[in-house]
């Protein structure tokens, strides 16, 4: 009996390790934070234009050094603004690609203004289920590992005085990059 349990555990471990390595490197995003690496599975099947923009900016290293300018405990961590104020962006404005993917913990979604077609480079990672956002913001990915590092990002927002030196994305790369 004991040998059967050990064999079953080893099979389960190898299957889960195989599943993790089976992720498509072209649609896997690495975000290096001060505490460790966050791995995001990008979903071009849900939001092809948004994923293409994220990939383009990552390949150009545009996200490197960008701060988390708005981090609300129990809600989300927002980044992607080169000005660090929450009012800037990079790339073309994107048409909304709202989908049925829920804004649950670990979802990665685009930030925007009141105009649904105003997303550019800013995105947020959901810290706690926030289903009231469903269908109003474009989910384009999900954190598959490293959520414990996202949880450690300093909390605060522009003008709040809460964070004088916000945490940043040190390096953002696609898994397919020659030097991820």
From TrEMBL:
GO molecular function: peptidyl-prolyl cis-trans isomerase activity
Keyword hit for Transcription regulation: no
Keyword hit for RNA-binding: no
Residue stretches making up the PPIase cyclophilin-type domain: 36-177
Position of the signal peptide: 1-22
Cited Pfam families: Pro_isomerase
Key words of the record: Isomerase, Rotamase, Signal
Domain of life: Bacteria
UniProt EC number: 5.2.1.8
Stored InterPro entries: Cyclophilin-like_dom_sf, Cyclophilin-type_PPIase_dom, Cyclophilin_A-like
Enzyme class label: isomerase
Catalysis performed (reactions): [protein]-peptidylproline (omega=180) = [protein]-peptidylproline (omega=0)
Annotated family: Belongs to the cyclophilin-type PPIase family.
Function according to Swiss-Prot or TrEMBL: PPIases accelerate the folding of proteins. It catalyzes the cis-trans isomerization of proline imidic peptide bonds in oligopeptides.
Name of protein: Peptidyl-prolyl cis-trans isomerase
Species the sequence originates in: Enhydrobacter aerosaccus
Lineage of source species: Bacteria, Pseudomonadati, Pseudomonadota, Alphaproteobacteria, Hyphomicrobiales
């Amino acid at each position: 009996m004991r040998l059967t349990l050990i064999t079953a555990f080893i099979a389960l471990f190898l299957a889960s390790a195989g599943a993790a390595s089976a992720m498509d490197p072209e649609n896997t995003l690495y975000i290096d934070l001060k505490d460790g690496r966050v791995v995001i599975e990008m979903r071009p099947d849900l939001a092809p234009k948004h994923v293409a923009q994220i990939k383009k900016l990552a390949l150009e290293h545009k996200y490197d050094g960008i701060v988390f300018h708005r981090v609300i405990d129990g809600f989300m961590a927002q980044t992607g603004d080169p000005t660090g104020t929450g009012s800037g962006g990079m790339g073309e404005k994107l048409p909304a690609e709202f989908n049925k993917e829920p804004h649950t913990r670990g979802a990665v979604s685009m930030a925007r203004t009141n105009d649904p077609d105003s997303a550019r480079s800013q995105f947020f990672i959901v810290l706690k289920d926030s289903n009231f956002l469903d269908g109003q913001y474009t989910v384009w990915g999900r954190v598959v590992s490293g959520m414990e590092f996202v949880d450690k990002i300093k909390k605060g927002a522009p003008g709040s005085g809460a964070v004088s030196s916000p945490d940043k994305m040190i390096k953002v790369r696609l898994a397919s990059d020659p030097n991820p």
